[in-house]
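Homework-ish question, so no full write-ups if that breaks the rules, but can someone show me the predicted structure for this set?
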Amino acid sequence: MDYFVNVTLTGLTQGMIYSAFALALVLIWRSTRIVNFAQGSMAAATTFIALALIQAGQSYWVALIVALLSGFLLGAIVERVIIRPVEGGPELNAVIVTLGLFVAIQAAIAIIFGSSFQSFPTPFGVRGFEVGDTTIPLTPTSLYIIGSVLLTMALLVALFRFTRIGLAMRASAFSQEVARLLGVKVGSMLTLGWGLAAVVGSLAGLLIAGGTFVWPAYMDALIVFGFVAAIIGGLDSPVGAIVGGLILGLALSYVSGYAPRGSALVNISALVILIVVLLVRPGGLFSSTTARRA
Amino acid sequence: MTAIAAATVASTVAACGGSDDSGGGTSSGGGGGENEASDIGVTEDTITLGAHYPLTGVAAPGYSEIPTGVQAYFDCLNQEGGVYGRDIEFIFRDDAYNPTQTSQVTNELVLEDEIFAMMSGLGTPTHSAVVDFLNDEGVPDLFVSSGSLLWGEDPEQYPMSFGWQTDYESEGKIIGEYIAENFPDAQVGLFLQDDDFGEDGEAGIRQYIDDQIVAAERYTPGNTNVGPQIAALQAAGADFVVGFNVPSYTALSQLTALQLGYDPQWFYSNVGSDPTLVGGLLNRFSEGQVSDAALLDGALTTGYLPTVDMTDNPWITEFQRIWDECGGEGDLTNYRVYGMAQAYTMTQALQAAGQNPTREGLVEAVETAGGEWEGPVFAPFRYSEDSHMGTGGMTIERIVGNGSEEVQPVRITDIGDAPIEEYDGEAATPPANAIPDEESVVD
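A: Not a homework solution, just the prediction itself:
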């Protein structure tokens, strides 16, 4: 029984990390209708900026704020300089550009910050809480991760549902021309969307890094799991991203914990889960009406 | 943080004049003829060697320092005249511990750089990907940086390959016997890398304590979530955990055990146990809570080479001097000592291969003379025509702070059901400048 609880809690924390990353993907999809493969290396870049600050003696929180701000700038610059010229063309063009960006940014990180493997601090403890006389694998750091992800999700839902700017962003993403005719500054909305998505991506990168190890490619495995989580959730729904991440985290943890040689089966299982979900619900678990799929 | 900007580094020390065919401080061995370009990778004044290491990625911590040790040793050797007046050029490339990349960089080393021999190629899964290629091409594949049995067990299958460090099965046997003698009541859990490394270690350890083992959990390198595996060891009631894992997974297993409040007696096999490295990785997490390598304090491990904390060991004194004179940035570490010790054995092999070495002659030299070579390694190598296994001896040590203290002197064994014996040989002392002086055994 203890074992089940341990595996479950490990899976939940891990799933929350996938959720955080999926959330960033959902945000950029909602606000620009582009799947951004470079999200992972953009997040890694800002994480390394934070690490450099921490190593220079700054506090975690200063580093966090600087990383989020630089994430916003990076997202906005990428949209203006690199994505803008291919926007409006075939959708595939923008996606391929983000794929190229993914490799380029990762190389840039290795050149600037080095490719060694480093530990990344967390502001909270990494010891599990004690319940009675047993310790459960839920640490202050995991609570920090869970709290931050839920808060971010709530803010995003509020932004898209209750604010004019959120509505304008959705309109710009959905149909640029109609939005423009209705007086929405589409260009600025797209830049804003990329900037915000990169902020969430940076936060995900920092949360994932906290209390573990980073190197330029540390997001690679998470990119795959983050995408699977986002797609399970429907790619369009912040709540779906969270649920998708949790389902994936739990499932993979059970596979790893209960299947023989489970650790080796984790990657395959992620694919199987994805296929099953898409067979049952082709749009993902939380997809909105199919009519919206442009 | 140091950037490993260059993926390939070749020795840039110019050929030292003034050394005649006697090879500087080394033996005159094979007579007084002239140097010839006797084989691929050998010119009148250079010998080119190649290697692959994970310089980036999850296996890079520690391992990426090995080539800097090799390089420093060869640079100092070259200043003293190299081997038979030839400079050793050492080219190493990054494979990121990814077998696909190992194949690619090994192709480059063999076909473009035209190396004379491979030395110290690192990793079981990585080197497995190129061992057939090297043997098919007839490239000597010396002193693989991995304790897999694959390199030395069957010289007929791989006539060009040689192991170097204690193989994981012999290590497992020595660990198993130690546990059976000293912890007969322990409930043992195994934390294993899911490949030959973990399998060989498990096979060895089960020869002695099969009935004490309550769980064997495997992790896949690259999957950094080991929570379920550590939780399973805890759930099985293991109070003594033996890890056959790489150093980053030592850190991950410690971190996960901390989350779970799991505190068994840890025993990390030699590969994953460097206290400085693991402590360095762990100590930045939430200042104060995990620091000073304290987590590893009291853990057991094995040794087959002197370590940097043994400052009065004459080999460490010499290696420290070499690192100060010919090394790069940073301190001498156990990984650099490892690289230097391999370079020392390589120098013995090249000397024994004679003044104008050939690839076949090099292999013959190791088979003929390698079993007699003395060096920094505690126990002798097992090289012969029938075995290409490296050293077969190990101490058991307890980690204290950033160093270790010996709890059991060197015992030696071999693969299969060979018995374990106490080793009664004397520790070798380094020759002048830590440059060996072997006679040529090849004509």
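Now go work out the reasoning yourself. Hint: The longest strand of chain B covers residues 403-412.
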